[in-house]
Design goal:
With about 400 residues, this protein is an alpha+beta fold. It has three domains: about 160 residues, 2-Layer Sandwich (Alpha-Beta Plaits), CATH 3.30.70; about 55 residues, 5' to 3' exonuclease, C-terminal subdomain (DNA polymerase, domain 1); about 150 residues, Dna Ligase, domain 1, CATH 3.30.1490. The protein has 15 helices and 13 strands. A five-stranded mixed sheet has the order 5-6-1-7-8. A five-stranded antiparallel sheet has the order 11-10-12-9-13, covered by helices on one side. The chain is globular. About 35% of the residues are buried. One of its GO terms (cellular component) is cytosol. Its cofactor is Mg(2+). Its EC number is 2.7.7.7.
Length: about 400
């Protein structure tokens, strides 16, 4: 199977659309870095870094505002190529997917030949570089694409799997974040091979039963998961990194409103409604928390979802004031098809429904930034960044 991953996606779209940016360090997002070109990354710029710090380490960087509509359009074009390559496509974010190509040998050639053509088509038809890993399992294919970056292709043959994976840093394992890596390092475990040398019971004792068993299985090259092209998305979400400066309650309300506005439109565009609104917070000490509320009936109305999200934020404001905040996000879960939504009484939401319809039509024609709420005037547009794929 293949793991295909677009390189420095947002920044690459900006460089594609503005030739004068090519070869230059590009930062997407001003207050917080949403994405950085490889030229900026080489100078030390990292995603989620504060804008001021990013400009300090790379003073000649070109800072551009995010254009989420352009990124979504590019993603849709790339995924159309994926699905033209094979019907077995599992999107895992806006810019990456797994593709099962093992059954295409007779009609399309070897997996390597399929991967070469895929990369050529994405470059020619969409104008973007994409890295591809080819391997027997999803996990190995994902690691191979990461190792091949930027703009690379790496094939891991079955007889090469151990020699490829075991010397890699343990951070390459899918699911090892900073906290888990630090725990393993303290125990002298720095490579995948060192983790694989443990007994499964020892890994479970160190990392917890579920996480330990999962990571130990990956380290020993066991990953039976197939590409799942039928899996329906159970939620959609967006978040915004806020940096470390203090944020007033009013600022947070504006940012939250922007996020919910965008998510509600995505719900309606996809013919969906949702029953549960989840508020996601990361505090000043980088600990995380979630707050949620489930509606009695599913809805796709912006006003309904905003009211719930604002209520969750209001309840969290005392804790935010005490601990600070570095990230805010919203997820809409328990999605249902629009045709299953219960009919609403006209006296309750008919005006809101008409307003949603009109605003969606205006933004479809003139762009997402063509209409804004009065509270947003004069402020950083602060487009939220997707947590989950824009596609199904």
């Amino acid at each position: 199977m293949l793991h295909a991953d677009l390189d420095a996606f947002y920044a690459s779209v900006e460089q594609r659309d503005a030739p004068e940016l090519r070869g230059r360090p590009v930062i997407v997002g001003g207050g917080v870095v949403l994405a950085a070109s490889y030229e900026a990354k080489a100078r030390g710029v990292r995603t989620a870094m504060g804008g001021r710090q990013a400009r300090d380490v790379c003073p000649d960087a070109v800072v551009v505002p995010p254009r989420m509509e352009a990124y979504s359009a590019a993603s849709r074009a790339v995924f159309a190529i994926f699905r033209d390559t094979t019907p077995e496509v599992e999107g895992i974010s806006i810019d990456e997917a797994f593709l099962e190509v093992g059954g295409l040998r007779r009609i399309a050639g070897t997996p390597e030949q399929v991967a070469v053509r895929l990369r050529e088509r994405v470059r020619t038809e969409v104008g973007l570089a994409i890295s591809v890993g080819v391997a027997r399992t999803k996990f190995l294919a994902k690691v191979a694409s990461a190792v091949s970056k930027p703009d690379g292709l790496l094939i891991v043959e079955p007889e090469q799997e151990e020699s490829f994976l075991l010397p890699l840093p343990v951070e390459r394992l899918w699911g090892v974040g900073a906290v888990t890596a630090e725990k393993l390092h303290r125990l002298g475990i720095r490579t995948v091979g060192q983790l694989a040398d443990l007994e499964s019971s020892a890994a479970e004792e160190l990392l917890g039963r579920a996480a330990g068993a999962h990571l130990h299985a990956l380290a020993r090259l066991r990953d039976p998961r197939p590409v799942d092209s039928t899996r329906r998305r159970g939620s959609i979400g967006s978040q915004r990194a806020l940096g470390n400066r203090p944020r007033s309650p009013e600022e947070l309300v504006v940012i939250l409103t922007q996020i919910v506005d965008r998510l509600a439109r995505r719900l309606r565009d996809g013919g969906r409604g949702c029953r549960t609104v989840v508020l996601r917070l990361r505090f000043g000490d980088y600990t995380k928390a979630t707050r949620s509320r489930t509606l009695r009936s599913a809805s796709d109305r912006t006003a309904v979802l905003l009211a719930v999200a604002h209520g969750l934020l209001d309840a969290a404001q005392p804790e935010i004031a005490r601990r600070g905040i570095t990230l805010i996000g919203v997820s809409l879960s328990h999605l249902v098809r629009a045709e299953t939504l219960p009919p609403e009484l006209p006296i309750d939401w008919s005006d809101g429904e008409r307003l949603d319809t009109v605003l969606d039509a205006v933004r479809d024609r003139f762009g997402a930034a063509s209409v804004a709420r009065a509270a947003q005037l004069g402020r950083d547009p602060g487009w939220s960044t997707p947590l989950l794929p824009e596609h199904e």
